[in-house]
Design brief:
The chain is of the alpha/beta class. The chain is built from 14 helices and 16 strands. The radius of gyration is 30 Å and the shape is globular.
């Protein structure tokens, strides 16, 4: 099968050929013909399988062949994404795929000034990639209109709900025309997203090219048990001992990200960070430095779990396990992309055993454990399995302590330093009268 056999026009075929695309991936082979026919679509595919091209290529073709020229402040296709990084990545994909077409694409998101975005929208945009919050701000200020909208794409919609965009999405959906093509693409689909799909999609074609919530087979996964307070020390040890090159590291909190970067830099390791408190230009600069090889370690929160497309990234390290199990799939999906292989290592402490169990249930496998000799944890990480069970070793029964009387001090069970259990005098029980213990009146 070739891209030409899917019915794509020559300018798009020229673009895919220049990118080295030869054979459509499974999700592309199923999605592209369906989108070209105007079908609503619900597609689940592992991250890194080319799902962006699965909706971008056919949408660009439909926009070129159908509908009037875009009017001022209007958009013809809208792609909603959860993060700024994913917005930039998807917008760049549309730019590259559509470089030989007379179409305009643009990305809007928070963290930067809204005024340049409003100016750009005045010319009209064929493909607008947006995060829900910023798009709603623009809509409320009449900077964007949806009367010409032909297609809506929800990319990583489950993450949008995780980030608390449900109310913004409801308001946006009510503003969109009912007659439109709607596409949902994601690596994972929660039950809430399936319910949303039932409300938004009309007779959708369902595509699942991999088991639901599966981790990419191209990524080798394992974990190292370690005490929480020694994670930084272990990471630095592995970095030197294993000769690791570039590493993308995921940390649970923004504060934790900054602390790890400070520790790495103090040891002479080049490191930068991405998290929600950093302004967008700083986040983009950190990513570009990492891609260019100027930075060895990129430390990030889950804001970067989706949307970072880094060529030939060999290794992802979960410094902390994610709170939401699905984010584990997206994290490790940053490596082993486009047919390459990768490795994902998790540093797991005893406090994270329930998070580990949830991840193993989701990916339907028990992660291999490898002890690091000098870092055996004092607080044991209980064994887990893919059924969600935490396998606890039975506690050894405590030996009863022998009561002893130490000179001058009564031991347990001793009476006044002389009596031990076997010698305690027998005391007759006293029958309490109804008024026993009550203060007398008067």
């Amino acid at each position: 099968m070739t891209f030409a056999s899917l019915g794509l026009i020559e300018p798009l075929l020229r673009a895919t050929e220049a990118l080295g695309y030869q054979t459509p991936s499974p999700v592309q082979a199923e999605a592209i013909p369906a989108v070209l026919k105007g079908r609503d679509l619900m597609a689940a595919a592992q991250t890194g399988t080319g799902k962006t091209a699965g909706f971008a290529l056919p949408l660009l073709q439909k926009l070129t062949q159908e509908g009037p020229q875009v009017a001022s402040n209007s958009v013809r296709a809208l792609v909603l994404v959860p993060t700024r990084e994913l917005a930039e990545q998807v917008n760049e994909s549309f730019r590259v795929y559509g470089q030989h077409l007379p179409l305009r694409n643009y990305a809007v998101y928070g963290g930067v000034s809204i005024n340049p975005q409003m100016m750009k929208l005045r010319k009209g945009i064929d493909v607008l990639v947006a995060t829900p919050g910023r798009l709603l701000d623009l809509y409320r200020q009449n900077a964007v209109k949806f009367n010409q909208l032909q297609a809506l794409v929800l990319d990583e919609a489950d993450r949008m709900l995780d980030l608390g965009f449900a109310r913004e999405l409801d308001e946006l959906f009510s503003a969109l025309p009912k007659r439109r093509q709607t596409l949902l693409f994601s690596a994972t689909f929660s039950d809430a997203i399936r319910q949303m799909a039932g409300e938004l999609l009309r007779d959708p074609l369902s595509i699942e090219v991999s088991p639901r919530n599966a981790a990419a087979k191209s990524v080798r996964q394992w974990l190292i048990p370690v005490d929480k307070k020694r994670k930084s020390e272990l990471f630095l040890h592995l970095l030197e001992d294993r000769g690791w090159g570039q590493v993308l590291v995921f940390v649970k909190t923004r504060k934790g990200v900054d602390q790890l970067v400070d520790e790495l830099q103090a040891q002479g390791v080049s490191a930068d960070s991405i998290h929600g408190d950093k302004p967008q230009p700083s986040r983009l600069r950190a990513l570009q430095r990492f891609k260019a090889g100027e930075v060895q370690i990129l430390v990030a929160t889950d804001v970067a779990a989706r949307g970072l497309d880094i060529d030939d990234l060999p290794l992802v390290v979960n410094f902390d396990l994610p709170i939401v199990a699905e984010d584990y799939v997206h994290r490790i999906g940053r490596t082993g992309r486009a047919g390459a292989t990768g490795e994902a290592v998790s540093l797991v402490c005893a406090d994270e055993v329930q998070l580990l169990a949830a991840i193993e249930v989701l990916i339907r496998q028990t992660l291999q454990r490898r002890d690091e000799p000098d870092f055996i944890p004092d607080h044991r990480v209980p064994m887990t399995d893919a059924t969600g069970q935490v396998i606890k070793k039975p506690k050894k029964p405590k030996k009863p302590k022998e009561p002893q009387a130490v000179a001058g001090k009564p031991g347990k069970g001793a009476a006044l330093g002389r009596w031990i259990d076997s010698e305690k005098p027998k005391v007759k029980s006293v029958r309490k009268s109804p008024g026993f213990g009550k203060a007398k009146k008067g």
